[in-house]
Design brief:
2 copies of one chain form a homodimer. Chain A has 2 helices and 10 strands; from the N terminus they run αββαββββββββ. By secondary structure, chain A is mainly beta. In chain A, strands 1-2-3-4-5-6-7-8-9-10 form a 10-stranded antiparallel beta barrel. In chain A, a hairpin with a 2-residue loop joins strand 7 and strand 8 (about 140-150). Chains A and B meet through strand 1, strand 8, strand 9 and strand 10 of A and strand 1, strand 8, strand 9 and strand 10 of B.
C-alpha cells in the first residue's frame, strides 16, 4: 500500500473511540468522535494554496484529503462542549521525497492543536503502517495508523511537549466513501499503482 | 532492529497502563500492570523443551525471553483480585523462516488467555515495529509493539473471537535489565548483528 492508496482506503465516515494515557498523572481518559475523510482533487484551490504557502510546486502533490471531526473527551469542560470542542478540519497533502513515494513531507492546514499551516513527515512501512511525525512549536507528535481489517483503523502514538500523552483510537467505518473520483490522485507519478 | 535486538531492548521491568475498547458494547476499560522481561539462554531446558514440543530443532531458536506480569483491570471481580487475576508468565522463542530473521514462528508457552503451548507468527517491519499474530482455538490476536523512546514501549492490536476487543498499552521502563548475558542470543546465525 502506498500513501495515496492509504488515504483512498481511509475515505468515508468513521466512529472513533479515543483513549489518552496522561503519563505524568498516570490517568486514562476516553472519548468518542466522528471522523470523515474525503479525497480532494489535487487541482482544488485549497490544495494549490497549501502547496504554495510551503514553497512546493502544486504539481508535486501526490493526492489531497480533507478530514473533518467532531467529538468530546471525558474531561472536557461541559459548559463549553455545546458545539463539540473537539471539532475541526485538516487538509493533508503528501509530497514525496523525490521518486520514493513511501516517505516525504505531509503538508497540513488547520490542525487539531494548532491553527497555522504545518509541515510534517510521513513514512509508509513495509507492513502498511503509516507514521505521521509533526512538530509545531514545542510540541512533537508521532502517530501510527493501520488497518487490521478493511473497515477498522487503529491509531496510536505520542505527543510530547506541553504535556506528555500517549493516545489510541479504534475507528470503525460506518459510511463508505462516495464513488471515487480517480482524478484525485496524481497518477502521472505512478503513485496510485 | 531485528527480532533478537527487539527482545533485548525490551528486557527490564515496565509499568504498563492498558486500555481495552470493547467493540460490541462500545466501552473502554483501563487497568495497570507490571511487566518484567528477561532473556533466557537458548540452552535453557525450558527453551529446549518448548522447541521439541513444537517439532523444531532447539538449534533453530534465535533467542528466548521470559515475560512475567501482574495486574488488574477495572471490571475485574474484586473478590478474586487478591493475588492479581491478570498474573502469569510466558516464554517466547522466535524461529526464523529460513535465512530471513525478520519473520518466522514465535513459540510461546503458558500464555495469558490460554494454557496450552501456542505457535504464532512474528514480523519485524522496516520501521522497527514488531507484529505478533497468534491463533488459539477460535481466538485470533494481532498486536504491534514499538519503542517511540528507548524507555517507552507502545502496544496496540485486536483480539477477535469470543469477544472483539482492541487494546492499547503504554509501557514505561522503571528498572533496566541486569547486565546482559551475551550468550542469550544465537550469534552464530548472525541474529544479533
Amino acid at each position: 500500500m502506498n500513501i495515496v492508496e492509504f488515504f483512498q482506503h481511509r475515505a468515508g465516515t468513521w466512529t472513533s473511540t479515543r483513549t489518552s494515557h496522561h503519563l505524568i498523572i498516570k490517568k486514562a481518559e476516553s472519548g468518542t468522535s466522528e471522523i470523515h475523510l474525503e479525497m480532494l482533487s489535487v487541482q482544488d484551490p485549497q490544495v494549490i494554496e497549501l502547496c504554495e504557502q510551503h514553497g512546493f510546486n502544486p504539481e508535486q502533490a501526490l493526492c489531497a484529503a480533507k478530514v473533518t471531526w467532531n467529538g468530546s473527551m471525558e474531561w472536557d469542560n461541559k459548559d463549553t462542549v455545546g458545539e463539540g470542542n473537539h471539532k475541526g478540519f485538516t487538509i493533508f497533502v503528501p509530497i514525496a521525497d523525490g521518486d520514493d513515494i513511501q516517505q516525504g513531507h505531509l503538508l497540513r492546514h488547520q490542525g487539531y492543536a494548532e491553527k497555522a499551516p504545518v509541515v510534517g513527515r510521513y513514512v509508509m512501512s513495509s507492513d502498511d503502517v503509516l507514521s505521521l511525525i509533526t512538530e509545531y512549536g514545542t510540541v512533537y507528535s508521532e502517530e501510527k495508523f493501520w488497518f487490521p481489517r478493511p473497515n477498522l483503523c487503529l491509531r496510536a502514538g505520542i505527543t510530547v511537549g506541553m504535556s506528555n500523552v500517549t493516545s489510541f483510537c479504534t475507528e470503525i467505518r460506518k459510511v463508505p466513501p462516495k464513488s471515487e473520483n480517480t482524478e484525485t490522485a496524481r497518477t502521472a507519478t505512478g503513485a496510485s499503482t
